Amino acid sequence: MLLRLLFVLPALLFCTFQSLAQAYEPGLLVTSTGDTLRGEIENSFWVEPPAFVRYRAASAASSQMFQPRQLRAVSFTDGRYFKYEALPLDRAVQTELDKLPRGNYPAIRVDTVLAEVLLDGPVPLRRVVLDGTPHYLLWRPNQPVLELSERRYLRETENDLWSVADGNNYLAQLSLYFLDCPEAASAARLAPFTAEGLADVVQAFNQACGSEHKPAQSWLAQAKPRRRLSFQGGVLAGVRYNRIESTSHQLAGPCVD
């Protein structure tokens, strides 16, 4: 007679804890009326433009909530910097597979948002993240704003199938935009599509061809959103019990694993 018992206790216990406590940091607000308020700002570690900003004059003071339209700028001391600006943003941009449009058609709309400042100078550089996709915006004096963003779309093939295509032609756009500045045009030919890569092109123009012939003030080092305090812990436990018994003389006695 052969009996076998297999007991498996819960094999995996996993708990995730995330602290979402308020985090106020020193900074200042410039209101739409031009007033400068110095104190503490709640750092919500924004990825997309914030819908509101909380401010308090001191740690013990009560907080005030501002909507973006009530502000001109938000600046953390030695941290990120935002300006409330009207910018052309392509709302048709998508990068998620289940949201890709059929065909590459822009849908640019001017929106006023708290845009993150990456460079501020003769040619500035801004970043606005919409629906998880970053949009980079820059402009030269007396020229339209150049909006650059990663984009994918569905393209119909010869076999009547749809394939994913890359619609981000930022290299051609940059080269054309800075055509009259050899230093910037040269930098544009090799620039990766990152905040740092685009900033290198803009700074090449500012230094070689800008009105001041010096680099713009940079917030690139501070412009990497930090995440709120997060703690993760896991416990792994498992037990296996096998017991084999036999009355056969060839398998005398129990076998326990």
What is this structure, in a nutshell?
The protein has about 260 residues and is mainly beta. The protein is built from three helices and 19 strands.
What's the helix and strand layout?
Layout: E1 7-8, E2 12-18, E3 24-31, E4 36-42, E5 53-56, E6 64-66, E7 71-76, E8 81-90, E9 108-120, E10 125-130, E11 133-138, E12 146-149, E13 152-156, E14 162-166, H1 170-177, H2 182-189, H3 195-208, E15 217-218, E16 230-236, E17 240-241, E18 243-244, E19 255-256
Antiparallel strand pairs: 1-17, 2-16, 3-4, 3-7, 4-5, 5-6, 7-8, 8-9, 9-10, 9-15, 10-11, 11-12, 13-14, 18-19
Helix pairs in contact: 1-2, 2-3
Describe this structure in words.
- By secondary structure, the chain is mainly beta.
- The chain contains three helices and 19 strands.
- Strands 3, 4, 5, 6, 7, 8, 9, 10, 11, 12 and 15 form an eleven-stranded antiparallel β-sheet that branches.
- It is globular.
- Mean pLDDT is 83; it is low at 1-21, 228-237 and 241-257.
Secondary-structure element pattern, one letter each: EEEEEEEEEEEEEEHHHEEEEE
Mean pLDDT over the residues: 83
Largest sheet: 11 strands, antiparallel
Strand content: 35-45%
Tags for this model:
12% helix, disordered N terminus, mainly beta, single chain, 257 residues, 3 helices, globular, 19 strands
